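ok trying again, last paste got cut off:
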Amino acid sequence: MNKDEILNDILRGAVDVVSREDLAKKLASGKKLRVKFGADPSSPDLHIGHSVVLTKLRQFQDLGHTAVLIIGDFTAQVGDPSGKDTTRPVLDHETVANNARTYTDQAFKVLDRDKTEIRFNSEWLKPFFASPAAGVSDFVNIAKSVTISQLLEREDFRARMKAEAPISLLEILYPIFQGYDSVAVKADVELGGQDQIFNLLMGRNIQKLSGQEPQAVMTMPLLVGTDGEKKMSKSYGNYVGLNDLPNDMFGKLMSLSDALMYSYYELLTSEDLAAVKAEHPMEAKKKLAGLITARFHGAEQAAVARAHFEQVFSRKELPEDMEIYRAEKAGKLSYLMVSAGLAKGMNEARRLIEQGAVRIDGEKVAEDIHFEPRSCVLQVGRRQFRKIEGA
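nice, full thing came through this time. structure:
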């Protein structure tokens, strides 16, 4: 590809670019760029919403550049205020360390390990608070150059102040911490979700204060979840996890609306959108589900998942490889669902029943019935099945 084609390919799907001219200049320089992406390990698993930025980072790697993946083990204990209307609880060190291990494992399902530099920001942020603090003078010089009025320009802070909701001092400091990450790793480019634009621009400012050439900044959209309404999040239950089993991943992606499907194509694949839109929507959706499932599980598993989907949903047949659960005593259906691994807790089980998502031998269950152990097929949603056997 020529320079313009490379730039257009890199900018595909981007929301903010600061600045296009800056990025074009860096890409044309012939320099091996250091492209930064930071993630706070605030939960144990990643979903394909996270992979939007990871996929963009992989594009830079494929062009020969170095991905600098920053695991925010320090900043995760502070709490990113981006998009939050309340102060997030502070995580303990052990939780953050455990989450960080899963983040690195899962990130390499997208990134090229050989072209990735992994850094933990406690390496340079922790000394700010050590005694004696080797880095405290650097932090003081930066902190005195950033005004409170600048930090309070954040839309989420303004909204919380208007609502008289509290803002902690740590949250005020968070953008400075994240911005200093760019100084520490000498980033040429930083990527992030569109809700991160304030923090990414802070990185540019702090690099200038530190005598470095400011990084180019590019943000990507927040992927809408499978419900078609809210951003993808485990807390909303509308996510596709990177560690989802192939059948579950394929099935969740097949539940997307046609309009949302095209957004996923743009943000998660390199497919030609015009060609995709010329296909029949159902076939295009199966192709999308296959591409994404293959990325995380391999082409063979993706083909098996497609065959499973077509058997169960297209032809309305039951899956052949249903897990067997032996029900040993009578009780509420919700209890059976939890025991069989079809719900995480009783409240979730009852909610699924109320939503009409539970079937026994194909018949929808309208309430949390008393279940006597017997042989049947218990189905939750479109993808989860258990073959129940009586004691």
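cool. The two ends are 65 Å apart (CA to CA). The chain has 17 helices and 13 strands.
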